[in-house]
Amino acid sequence: MARPRILVVGAGFAGVECVRRLERGLVPGEAEIALVAPFSYQLYLPLLPQVAAGVLTPQSVAVSLRRSRKHRTRIIPGGAIGVDPEAKICVVRKITDEIVYEPYDYLVISAGSITRTFDIPGLLDNARGMKTLAEAAYIRDHVIAQLDLADASHDENERASRLQFVVVGGGYAGTETAACLQRLTTNAVGHYPRLDPKLIKWHLIDIAPKLMPELGDKLGRSALEVLRARGIEVSLGVSIAEAAPEKVTFTDGRVLPCRTLIWTAGVTASPLVSTFDAETVRGRLAVTPEMSLPGFDGIFALGDCAAVPDLSKGDGAVCPPTAQHAMRQGRRLADNLIATLRHQPLKPYVHKDLGLVVDLGGKDAVSKPLGVELHGITAQAVARGYHWSALRTNVAKARVMTNWVLNAVAGDDFVRTGFQSRKPAKLRDFEYTGAYLTPAEVREHTAALHTRT
Predict the structure, then answer these.
(1) Which tens digit of pLDDT belongs to each residue from 93-110?
(2) Is-contact 187 179, C-beta < 8 A?
(3) Which site from 84, 222, 330, 381 is most exposed, i.e. has the minimal number of CB atoms within 10 Å?
(4) If phi over 0 gives left and psi between -120 and 50 gives alpha, with beta otherwise, what is residue 90?
(5) Which stretches make up the FAD/NAD(P)-binding domain (predicted)?
(6) Reported pTM
(7) Cβ neighbours of 421 (radius 10 Å)
(8) Which residues contact 153 (CB under 8 A, 6 or more apart)?
(9) Which of 329, 324, 336 minimizes the C-alpha distance to 309?
(10) Read out DSSP for 341-387?
(11) 18-28 as b/e: b if 16+ CB within 10 A
């Protein structure tokens, strides 16, 4: 009898935790495991702002999936672009652009999320995100390039536009990105004697009335005070009306000369969820507490692309798209898959949120572990301790700790690594969102497979 085939889509926190748990829990030969991933690493997303600021090297937050030879999972280098539940086929575009059809008995959709955008003129052409390792490396090069180009320019208007930076999104990603990069430019400007430090201005804007409301009013205000004390102009209740190559227009009518627009205004589920007809909740797949997809045999979903019920809160709440939930969902789903194979009952996912940490760079941070509000050095220690402990391998932990110590002792460096090209990258250049199929296109691709079965 052929072994059951378990296909996991996505190598984020949820997918990797699920795969590793399956490898430990399954008896050799009990099932075949395959993982679809465009990159052979797991990205520790919460530390991307520190990569953009040069505090951490890119390889520090990219944990290789191929480092251990003990793993029994087959890695398929590519991205899932469609699902045909009737044929039990996942359509995969490999990194060579070859289209392959991966059969499955059990499909785990942990495809994560992409940057959420809106129909704002010029946004897709002139903004950059903070969702991938390539984006973080690109933004670092871009920001340092603006200092170099401003230093080389004799045009005062050009200098002003190159030295104004706008970050949209007052959540964790946007707040940490603005804080870390502002600290980088503040430290760098001392090495540019021709530049007036007063010309360097960072703006953080968000349509919401509060900064990081999840932290609560007290800590939210503390973070706001830290940012404003550093000279970051925070505008709430404001968004972008238009994004041009050399200026940004706010919804309150202000027009800023600006050549750096970083867009971190939330995420939305991977387009993979719309390649077949399934019920969604605010764009995320509606699943049971056991993370199975109702009405679809052998399909499970978790992480950012799934609306997993938050049983610890009740009242119809769903788990937020955070790393701590994704990792724990991955482990629970692996246990449920093993239980399914062994005809045992499944268990629901239950986890009470452990709290939130926000690293603002240097000695600044705000944290709320287990409901205890912290700020300053203590919060910084908690934030970095949490991130350090969550890294999956000892090699990654050693690299991150070494980078933190080196940065604390030696300070920042301001070297461009060459990612910045003469042709600016666009927001969609990094996430390949145009690759996904419609449900009709999926059926067209798998039509021949239906006739064989």
Answers:
(1) 999 999 999 999 999 999
(2) no
(3) 381
(4) beta
(5) 5-330
(6) 0.92
(7) 9
(8) 159, 162
(9) 329
(10) HTT-----------EEEEE-STT-EEEEETT--EETHHHHHHHHHHH
(11) bbbbbbeebee
Identify whether the C-beta of residue 172 lies closer than 8 Å to the C-beta of residue 266. Answer: no
Place of tokens 């340092």: 144
Q: Which residue matches tokens 């030879």?
A: 69
User: Residue 266 in 3-state DSSP?
Assistant: coil
Pairing of strands 247-250, 255-257: antiparallel
The encoded tokens of residue 211 equal 């900064």
Q: Helix 323-341 to helix 377-390 angle, to the nearest 10 degrees?
A: 30
**What are residue 285's DSSP bridge partners?**
280, 306
Cβ proximity of 33 and 73 under 8 Å: yes
Dihedral sign from CA coordinates of 173, 174, 177, 180: negative
Q: 323-341 vs 13-25: helix axis angle to the nearest 10?
A: 30
Cβ contact 176:170 at 8 Å: no
What are 227-273's pLDDT values in tens digits? 999 999 999 999 999 999 999 999 999 999 999 999 999 899 999 99
CA distances from 38 to 45, 81, 218 (A): 16, 11, 41
The CB density around residue 278, as the number of other CB atoms within 10 Å, is 20
Which of 38, 54, 269 minimizes the C-alpha distance to 132? 38
Find the largest Cα–Cα distance for the chain.
75
Amino acid letter for position 116: R
**What is the per-residue pLDDT across 136-156, written as a single tens digit (0 to 9) for each?**
999 999 999 999 999 999 999
Q: Where are the alpha helices (DSSP H) in 171-322?
A: 172-188, 217-229
Contact 99, 445 (CB under 8 A): yes
Burial of 97 (0-12, 13-18, 19+ CB in 10 A): exposed
Retrieve residue 268's tokens: 């939305």
Instruction: Tell me how far CA of residue 32 lies from CA of 73, 108, 224, 345, in angstroms.
Output: 8, 13, 50, 21
How many CB atoms within 10 Å of residue 232?
22
| Chain position carrying tokens 């050799």 | 28
Residue with tokens 């021949």: 448
What single string gives the DSSP state of each residue in 152-172? H---HHHHHHHTEEEEE--SH
